[in-house]
Amino acid sequence: MTGQAVGEKIGTGPVRVVREVSGLADVQRDDVLVAAKTDPDWEPVMKRVAAIVTDQGGRTAHAAIVSRELGIPCIVGTGNGTQLLHDGKEVTVSCSEGSEGRVYAGRVPFEIERIDASTVPRTHTQVMLNVGDPSNALALAAIPNAGVGLARIEFIVTNYIGIHPMALVNHPKLNELQTVVDIAVRIGEEDPREYFIKRLSEGVGRIAAAFYPKPVIVRTSDFKTNEYARLIGGKQFEPVEENPMLGFRGASRYYDQRYAEGFALECAALLRVRRDMGLINVKVMIPFCRTVDEAKRVIDAMAANGLRQGEDGLEVYGMCELPANVVLAEEFLQLFDGYSIGSNDLTQLVLGIDRDSGTVAHLFDERNEAVRRMLAQVIKVARGLRKPIGICGQAPSDYPELAAWLVEQGITSLSLNPDAAIKTAHVIAEAEAKALLQTATAS
C-alpha cells in the first residue's frame, strides 16, 4: 500500500493494529503501529515503535509531526491501512523513495548511506533543529546546527507529566473523585504544582543543556482543547469546541482566567531553567497570537510570573502563523524580539484548509503562490526592522526548493526536522552561493 511519506527512513517489524486507546497496551517495542490516526496522548507508545502507518491525515497531521521529531518512518493517509494490514504480519515501511511512502510485505533488505558530519557546509543562514523529546537532545546536538528553533513543550507535558495543569492547580478540590485518586496515585506525596514545574523544567533543561550555549527557542503550550481534555483531569477544564484548531489555543489561554494559573506553572518552569539552572540560552516563543493587544497581555502575564522580557537577556519571540501576523508584522515586531514562521498554520489559514482533514489534504501546499507572497512580505518587513525571522514549520524540511527560495528572500534561520538538517544545509549553501554570484554579476 502507499501513502504520503514522512521523513526518509525505513522501518521493519510486525504489524500491531490499534483501533481503540486501550489497544496501545499491546504495542511492543519495534512493532509497526497501524491506526486510523494518532493523538498526543499516544506519544509515549510512538517513541518505541519501528514505524507508523495511518489511514488518515497529511504531512502536518499529529502522526507526521511527532514521527519526524522522533526520527521514526511514518506513512500517513493510506486510506485502508487498518483494513489491509493484520497483527503479526511482518512488513517494511519505506519513506526513502520520494514523497510516496510504501509498505512492503516481509522484511525487505536495504542499505544505509552514512554522511560525515564534518563535510556539512557552513552557511550564513542559520540551520536550527526542531526538538521535542528531551531524551534525544544530546544525540541531536551532534548534528551540525545553530541551536534549537522550536522546542515543543507539549511533548514533555504528555510524556513526563500527563496531568492537566489546571487539575494540578486545583487538586485535591476537584469535582470528580476518580480524577482526584488518579492524580494522587501519580504524584504521590509531591506538591501538585511542584510536580508540574519540576518535570517541565527538567525536560526543557535537558534540551537547553544539550545545545548550550546555542539558543534554544521554547514554544509555550499550544495544545488544542480536545488534546488538553485527554490529559488526566482535562475534561473538567476544557470546553467542547466544534473546531478546536481555531478555538481556545495558544496565546488566548495565557491571560484567561480559565488557564492563567496553568500558564503561571509554565512560566515558573521556564524561570527555573533560566535562573536556577543558569541556562539563559532559553528564549520563549508565543504561539497563535491573534492581535497586537493580545501580545501585550501575554508579555504582561509573563512579567507578572517572573519572566520579564529583557531581564538576563530574555528574548520573547512570536509565532508568525496567522495572516494577521503578516499584515500587522510591524506592529507585532515592536513587541516581539523576533518572529518564527509556523508554515503549517499559516498555510491552513491562507488557503482555508483544516490541516487535520484528510479529505482536502491534497490541496494543502506551502508552496502555493498565496502562501509564498505572505512569506516574502513578512520576511521583508522583519529585515527592514532588523529583527530576526526564521521558520520552524514543516515546509523547508519537506521541500528543498522552498528552503532555497526562503534563503533568497533573506530569511534569518531555518529550523528543520533533524532528519532533514544535513541535506537541507547543502541546499542552503548552494542557494547562498547562487545569490552571491548574482550579486557579483549585477555589480
Structure notes:
This protein has 443 residues and is α/β, with parallel strands linked by helices. The protein folds into two domains: 2-105, Phosphohistidine domain (Glucose Oxidase, domain 1, 3-Layer(bba) Sandwich), CATH 3.50.30.10; 117-442, Alpha-Beta Barrel (TIM Barrel), CATH 3.20.20. The protein contains 19 helices and 15 strands. The protein has helices at 43-46, 62-70, 81-84, 137-140, 153-161, 165-170, 177-187, 192-211, 225-228, 251-254, 260-276, 292-304, 323-327, 329-332, 343-351, 369-384, 395-398, 400-409, 418-442, and strands at residues 2-6, 10-17, 32-35, 51-54, 74-76, 90-94, 100-105, 126-131, 148-152, 216-219, 282-286, 316-320, 338-341, 389-391, 413-416. The strands form two sheets. An eight-stranded parallel beta barrel has the order 8-9-10-11-12-13-14-15, surrounded by six helices. Helix 8 packs across helix 11 (260-276). The protein starts with a strand and ends with a helix. The mean pLDDT is 93.
Write the layout of secondary structure elements.
Blueprint: E1 2-6, E2 10-17, E3 32-35, H1 43-46, E4 51-54, H2 62-70, E5 74-76, H3 81-84, E6 90-94, E7 100-105, E8 126-131, H4 137-140, E9 148-152, H5 153-161, H6 165-170, H7 177-187, H8 192-211, E10 216-219, H9 225-228, H10 251-254, H11 260-276, E11 282-286, H12 292-304, E12 316-320, H13 323-327, H14 329-332, E13 338-341, H15 343-351, H16 369-384, E14 389-391, H17 395-398, H18 400-409, E15 413-416, H19 418-442
Parallel strand pairs: 2-3, 3-4, 4-5, 8-9, 8-15, 9-10, 10-11, 11-12, 12-13, 13-14, 14-15
Antiparallel strand pairs: 1-5, 1-7, 2-6, 6-7
